[in-house]
Design a protein that fits this description.
The chain has 369 residues and is α/β, with parallel strands linked by helices. Helix content is 25%, strand content 25%. The chain has ten helices and 21 strands. Strands 6, 9, 10, 11, 12, 13, 14, 15 and 16 form a nine-stranded parallel β-sheet that branches. Helix 6 links the parallel strand 14 and strand 15. 52% of the residues are buried.
Length: 369
C-alpha cells in the first residue's frame, strides 16, 4: 500500500509532505519495496503514528481487572477505533488471588484479526498493589501491600513476562530493595506516594525511571518541599505520565509539565470502564464510581480514573496550547520509549509496524490503519 500526498509526522517532530510506503504491515523506504501498489490519497490530511496508551484500566463497560479476556477484546476494539493502536491494560489494587487470575489469563490471550481489528497489547501496567495507603486515590486500602519482589515475578511469569510498568510508592518499606532488584526487568514508576524529595531521588538513583499520573496522588510541588515531582523533573532519564482530560490537571499545570519534563511527558488516559458509556454508576476495582461527563468520582468525591480516551487527551492538550508536535510525541514516541518498544512502534520510520492514523486539520480522526 502507498499512502499518497499526506503531511507525515516525522521522527524529528516536524511535518513533511510525502508518500508513505507499506509492505506486509511494515513501513518501508520506497515504492520499489511495495508489492501491493494500492494507493490511498491523504491529500489535506495529517499522517500520524498510531497512539500508545500505557495506562488505561478499561472502556465500554469492561475493565482489565475483571479478568475477562472477551471483555478485554471489546476494550481493545474501542481503543483501535479511537486511534490507539498499542495499549497496556492496567491492573488495580485488588486481592492477590484475583491479580494472579488476571495475569494467568493474559498468558493465553489471543490478539485480534483483520476481521476484528483491535489495539495490540503492548504489555501490562501493574499499577497496584505496592502503594502508599495515604495516597491510595481510588485504590482499595485493604488490598495494598508492601513491595514484594517474589509476588511481582510470580505475576509476571504467569502472564508471559508482559508486565512493562509497575507503580511503586518509594516511601514504603522494601521499596528501594524492590527497585534495585527489578529495574532491569521492568520500568518502575513512582506514584501513589507521599514521598519527599530525598526519598524519590534515592528511588530514581536506584533505577526508577517513570512517574505515575504526574500531580495526582502525590505531594504537590512546593518551593521548600519539591517532593517526587521536583526529583523526577531533575532526572533526565525519567518519563512522567499526565492525564490531560481537563479534569485531573489544570491546563496551566499541563503546560508547566511539558516545560518541567521537556521531551519526557507521556500522555495517558487512565480510563475506566465508563469510557464510551453513558453517565451513571460503575465499578472500579470493587468500588462504586459515579460518572458525569468526563468526571468520575468515588462516593467521597475522590477522582477515580478518567472517562475519556488517549486521542481526546491529545486533542485536549493541543487545545491547552501544547504545540501539536509535542502533544503527538507525548502520545506516540514517548510512551513507546518509556516501556521499551520504540524499535517496533511510535514513529513512522522504515522497519516499524505500520500503525497509521489519518487526521484532518481540525484533529478529527479520519481513518485508522
Amino acid at each position: 500500500m502507498i499512502i499518497k500526498n499526506g503531511t507525515v509526522y516525522q521522527e524529528d517532530k516536524t511535518f513533511a509532505k510525502k508518500d508513505l510506503y507499506i509492505e506486509d504491515g511494515i513501513i518501508v523506504e520506497n515504492a520499489g519495496q511495495v508489492s501491493d501498489k494500492t494507493e490511498m490519497d491523504a491529500e489535506g490530511l495529517l499522517v500520524l503514528p498510531g497512539l500508545i496508551d500505557v495506562h488505561s484500566h478499561g472502556a465500554v463497560g469492561h475493565d482489565f481487572s475483571d479478568g475477562d479476556m472477551e471483555g478485554l477484546k471489546k476494550i481493545l476494539a474501542y481503543e483501535y477505533a479511537h486511534g490507539i493502536t498499542s495499549y497496556c491494560p492496567t491492573s488495580m489494587t485488588i486481592d492477590k488471588e484475583e491479580l494472579r487470575k488476571i495475569f494467568r489469563a493474559m498468558g493465553s490471550f489471543q490478539e485480534g484479526t483483520e476481521d476484528a481489528p483491535m489495539s495490540y497489547v503492548a504489555g501490562i501496567n501493574m499499577e497496584g498493589p505496592f502503594l502508599d495507603a495515604g495516597k491510595k486515590g481510588a485504590h482499595r486500602a485493604e488490598c495494598i501491600m508492601a513491595p514484594d519482589v517474589a509476588f511481582f515475578r510470580e505475576c509476571n511469569e504467569a502472564c508471559g513476562n508482559l508486565i512493562r510498568l509497575v507503580t511503586l510508592a518509594p516511601n514504603t518499606e522494601g521499596a528501594m530493595e524492590f527497585t534495585r532488584e527489578l529495574h532491569d526487568e521492568v520500568s518502575i514508576s513512582l506514584g501513589h506516594s507521599g514521598a519527599d524529595y530525598n526519598t524519590a531521588k534515592a528511588a530514581l538513583e536506584a533505577g526508577a525511571n517513570h512517574v505515575t499520573h504526574l500531580f495526582n496522588a502525590m505531594m504537590p510541588l512546593g518551593h521548600r518541599a519539591p517532593g517526587l515531582i521536583g526529583a523526577a523533573a531533575e532526572d533526565e532519564n525519567c518519563m512522567a505520565e499526565i492525564i490531560s482530560d481537563g479534569i485531573h490537571v489544570h491546563e496551566s499545570m499541563v503546560r508547566a509539565a511539558f516545560k518541567l519534563f521537556p521531551g519526557r511527558i507521556v500522555l495517558i488516559s487512565d480510563s475506566m470502564r465508563a469510557t464510551g458509556m453513558e453517565n451513571g454508576t460503575y465499578d472500579l476495582g470493587g468500588q462504586q464510581v459515579t460518572v458525569n461527563g468526563k468526571l468520575a468520582t468515588l462516593a467521597d468525591g475522590t477522582i477515580a480514573g478518567s472517562a475519556t480516551n488517549l486521542y481526546d487527551c491529545m486533542r485536549t492538550a493541543i487545545s491547552f496550547g501544547i504545540p501539536s508536535a509535542e502533544a503527538i510525541a507525548a502520545a506516540t514516541m514517548n510512551p513507546a520509549k518509556s516501556i521499551g518498544i520504540y524499535e517496533k512502534v511510535g514513529s513512522l520510520t522504515p522497519g516499524k509496524r505500520a500503525d497509521v492514523l489519518l487526521v484532518d486539520q481540525e484533529w478529527n480522526l479520519v481513518k485508522v490503519l
